[in-house]
## 1
Amino acid sequence: MSGGDVPDRVRAVMGDVFGVPEERLREATGRGELAEWDSIGHLRMVTVLEEEFGVRLSMEEIGEMDSVSSVVAAVQRHL
Amino acid sequence: MRVGVVVRRFLLPRSLVSLRAYLRYRCLVSPRAEVELSRHLRIGPGSVIGSFTKIKSANGPLRIGRETHVATGCFITSHAGGIEIGDDCLVGPNVSIVGSNYRYDDIDRPIRLQRHTSEGIRIADNVWIGAGAAILDGADIGEGCIITPNSVVGGTIPRNGIVTGNPGRVVFVRR
C-alpha cells in the first residue's frame, strides 16, 4: 500500500460512515464541523477503519482523533 | 386475575413494598415505583429501583443483581423464560425490558388472543442501558456492554459491545 492513498481511503471511509460527500472532508475538517460526526459516529468510524486497514487503534488515539488529518495520522502510524 | 395477584398489585401500600424490599433484599425501591411482590422476584443488595418504574414478575422469574440501578419510568416484565439482570448494571430512564412476545402466525385471529412465547432475557454484569432503549425477549447482552439511548436489542451482544440503532448493532467493542 502506498502512503499516498491512505488519506483518500480514510476520507472514503469517513464519507461513507458519516453519509457526507468526500469533498466536505478536507484535511482540516474538524469534528465540530460535521453534525454527523457524533460520539457514536466516531466509534463506527473507528471500527470501519480498523477493518479496512487491518489495524487496531489505542483508546488514546481514538480520543485524540478530532480532525480528518488526525484520523489519517493515527491510521498511518499503524501501517 | 387471581385474588392474590390483585391484592399484591393494587391493594398493598407502596411504602410497605419498599419497606419489605429493604428488609428482605437490602435494596431501595422508591415508594413511587410499582413493584409487584412475587415469589419469582429477587433483587440484590444495594440495588435501586426508581420512581414510576413498574416491575411485573408474577409470570416468570426475575432476578436483579447487586448494586444495579434502575432509573425512573422503566417497565420490566418477566414471563416463563425469565429475566436476569446482573450486578452493577445501570438502566436508564424509560427503558423497557419485556420478556415475552405475542405469536402472530394466525392471520384470522386477533394477535392478543394468540399465545405468548418467552425465551427469556439475560443481561450480564456491568451493562449500561441508555434512556428509552427496548430490550426484547431473546436478548442476551454480554458483560460490559453499553446500549445507547432508544436502541432496540433482541439478539446476542458480545461482551463490551457498544450497541446502537434498531435493530441494535455493535458499532464498537470497548477495549
## 2
Amino acid sequence: MKDTEILDLYWARDERALTETQHSYGKYCYSIAYHILHDREDSDECVNDTWLRAWYAIPPKRPNKLSLFLGTITRNLSFDKWKHKNALKRGNGEMELALDELVECVPAAKGTEEAVEAAELERLINEFLHTLPERECNVFLRRYWYVEEYSEIAARFQMNLNTVKTSLFRTRGKLKAFLEQEGIVL
Amino acid sequence: MSNHQEKHSGAMRIFEALSSVDEELLERCNEKAKVIPFWKYTKVMAACACLLLVCLVTWTGTQVFKGNNSTSSDCAAPESMNEMAVADAIAADTEGGGAEEADPEYDMAGDANTPAEAEEQSELEVKEESSKVTQDSATDSLAEAENQHGIVWDSGSSIAQLQESLGEEELRAVKGLGEYIPTVIPEGYVFESGYRMAEGGLHLCWSKGMDTIMISVSVYEANEENEGRIVDISKPETYDEHRYEIPYASTVPEEYRQVFQNPIFRESDFTPEAVSARMKSVADMGDTDTPRGNFAVLYDSGVIVSFNGDGDAEQIWEMFESVGEK
C-alpha cells in the first residue's frame, strides 16, 4: 500500500492504518530500534509504541515521508529507553560506542556560556551536514542516526572498512571544529 | 559533573539533535551505492577510446578529402592498441588545440613533400607522447575509480602509489614476485599494462575485447583486515557466490561479508572448486556473459596473488596452476 493510502486510513481513523504500517515499515523501524537497544523485546516494544504515537500524531500531521516520520519516532523512543536502561551502568553495545565516538565532536567549554538550545543545535547540525560531501554525510548518518556498525556501512556503500572509519573520524573532527567556530557550548 | 560525564552528555545532545536532521539527507543516506565493477569501468574507458577513434577517423577522412593529396593508408583504422593510443592522443591533441593550431607534425593529411624518414621520426615521437598521455590518463581514471568505489588492492596500496610502468617480461623478471605471475593466460587475452608499485607489488592487466584479467602480486601483510579475509574452506557459505543473489548487501549475512567480498584462499585450500565458487556469470545489460569474479591466493612463501576479472573457472584455475612455472 502506498504512503498516501496509509495516511488516508489514519485520517479516516481506520485501524487498518496500524496493520498496514506494520506491514510496510515494521522491519525498518525494528531495525532502527534494535541497532540502538540490541534487545528483541525492547525493540518490539518501541516499535509498537511508534505505531501508537503515529496514531495520535496523524492527524493533524500529514508527513511527507512516512518512513522517515516513523523512523524518527522509533529512534527517539529507543534512545529514551536506552538512556533509562543505561542510567546506572555503561553498556557494551553499539550505542555506547557511537556515543563515545560522538564525544569527540563536543567542543571544549571555554567559559560560563549558556548551553545552546536544542533547536539551535539541531539547526546548526543540519547546516553542518549540508556542507559535507554526499558520501561523507551518508556515512555519518548511517553511523549516528541509524547506529549501524562499520561493517554494515561498508557493505551498504561498497566501501572498505578502513575508509568508513577514516571518513567518520574526519567528519567528527569537522563537526567539532564547526561547533567551536559557532561558539557552541553543549 | 566530571569532564567525561559532561562530554558524554554533550554527545547525547548531538545524538538527540540528529533526530531532526533534514528528511532529504536521511532519504539520501538510505540509498545503496550504485557500484560499477572495476572491469566495467575499464569497459567505459574502452568505449570512450573507441568513440575518440571514430572521431579521429572521421576527422582524418575529412582532412584527406579536403587536402586531396594523401594515400588511403593515411586514414586506415589502427590495428593495435598502440596505434589506438596514438590515435587517441592525436584526437585529444586536436580537441585541445583546434585543427588550425595543430602541430604540423601531427597533420594526418600528410605532406607530399615530407621525406619518409621525417614522417617515421614524427610518428615515433607521437607514439612516445601518446604513450605518456595514455598512461597518465589511465592512472587518473584508476585513481578516480578507486576514490569512487573504494577499490583497494591486496597490498593496501593506492593507485597514487603506482610508480613504474613496466612490460610483461620486465615484471616477470622481478625477483621474489615475478615468478608468481601466471605463465598461462587464457586464450585470446593480450597484455595491456603492468606496473610495479612503490612498495614493491606488481600489477598486471590483460584484456580480450570487453573482458579483462587483472593480477596483482605482493608480499602478504598479516594485518587484522587481511587476516579477517582468509577463507575457512570448510565454510563455502562464506565465499561461494553461487549461493547468493545480487545485491549481495541484502543477501549475504553480515558476518560473512568481509570474507565474501575479498576472500583469500590459503595455497593448501585452493582448489578448482574454490575458483568455481568465485566465478559467476551475471546477466548485466551491456556486459559479456563471461563469468567474472575476484579472489586471492596466499602462498606458503608469504606472497599473495590477487585475481579480479573475467574468464571460465577452468581457465582461471589453469592460469593459477601455472604460477611458479618457468
